[in-house]
């Protein structure tokens, strides 16, 4: 049987693309990475994700799948090795629940901190901290979201590790400390040291330069409006 053709359209710094890279790595699936410029979207991206025009897009034997959480589920059903979703239906629902909570509540609230200025930073921190405290409660007594095994919810929420480093370096604020968030801090370490995950984080200095520039550009646009 001919080897399946697998392409991932993405950008090196996208937290959504990273999820797919981590999962492909964990499953040991080979693929070609196509770096996109989201300021100047390629005809390939527009063809394969005409609805959202966003990365990541996975193209499997010519068929495209968009939306990172949908891609993760597709991958788990297609490549059965090292499953990322648990078998038990309730646990599967919980993995999806926490991933959705991450995307719909946590990420926007942390992004508001990142793009705030002056006293607005403190206000934004209140709601971001509340969301992080909910994750702290969920992780209590567990290594990963589903217990001992790293899976879907961990991969979906892995962006927290990067985002915390960026916030701490760029805004010079401590977002997650071991006293207030012992379980979340331990999870961040367990996650970022996990084989396959560890080696696929983008270089920190490159991330810092990219996100510093992005923040300045966002603040400048806001200021000129
Ligand atoms: N919900 C989407 C979000 C993807 C997303 O926002 N991707 C960004 C890069 S981090 C993008 O392609 N932005 C291009 C744009 O908004 O035009 C997913 O989970 O895949």
UniProtKB/TrEMBL annotation:
Domain GST C-terminal: 88-211
Enzyme Commission identifier(s): 2.5.1.18
Entry-linked CDD domains: GST_C_Tau, GST_N_Tau
Superkingdom assignment: Eukaryota
Gene3D superfamilies, alphabetized: 1.20.1050.10, Glutaredoxin
InterPro entries assigned: Glutathione-S-Trfase_C-like, Glutathione-S-Trfase_C_sf, Glutathione_S-Trfase, Glutathione_S-Trfase_N, GST_C, GST_C_Tau, Omega/Tau-like, Thioredoxin-like_sf
Boundaries of every GST N-terminal domain copy: 4-83
Any Gene Ontology CC annotation: cytoplasm
Record field: catalytic activity: RX + glutathione = an S-substituted glutathione + a halide anion + H(+)
SUPFAM superfamilies (alphabetical): GST C-terminal domain-like (SSF47616), Thioredoxin-like (SSF52833)
Keywords, sorted A to Z: Transferase
GO molecular-function term, one example from the UniProt record: glutathione transferase activity
Enzyme class, UniProt record, top EC level: transferase
Any one of the GO BP annotations: glutathione metabolic process
Family the UniProt entry places it in: Belongs to the GST superfamily.
Protein name per its UniProtKB record: glutathione transferase
């Amino acid at each position: 049987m001919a080897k399946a053709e697998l392409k991932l359209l993405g950008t090196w710094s996208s937290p959504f693309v990273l999820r797919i890279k981590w999962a492909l790595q964990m499953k040991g699936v080979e693929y070609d990475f196509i770096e996109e410029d989201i300021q100047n979207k390629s005809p390939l991206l527009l063809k394969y994700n005409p609805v959202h025009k966003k990365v990541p897009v996975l193209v499997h034997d010519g068929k495209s799948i968009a939306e990172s959480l949908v891609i993760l589920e597709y991958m788990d059903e297609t490549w059965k090795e090292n499953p990322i979703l648990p078998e038990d239906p309730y646990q599967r629902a919980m993995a999806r629940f926490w991933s959705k909570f991450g995307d719909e509540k946590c990420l926007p609230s942390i992004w508001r901190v990142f793009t705030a200025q002056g006293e607005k930073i403190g206000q934004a921190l209140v709601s971001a901290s509340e969301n992080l405290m909910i994750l702290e409660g969920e992780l209590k007594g567990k290594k990963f979201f589903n217990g001992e095994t790293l899976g879907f919810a961990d991969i979906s929420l892995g962006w927290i590790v990067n985002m915390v480093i960026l916030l701490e370096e760029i805004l010079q604020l401590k977002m997650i400390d071991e006293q207030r968030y012992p379980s979340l801090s331990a999870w961040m370490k367990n996650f970022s040291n996990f084989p396959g995950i560890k080696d696929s984080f983008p270089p920190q200095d490159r991330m810092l330069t990219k996100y510093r520039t992005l923040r300045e550009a966002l603040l400048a646009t806001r200021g000129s409006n």
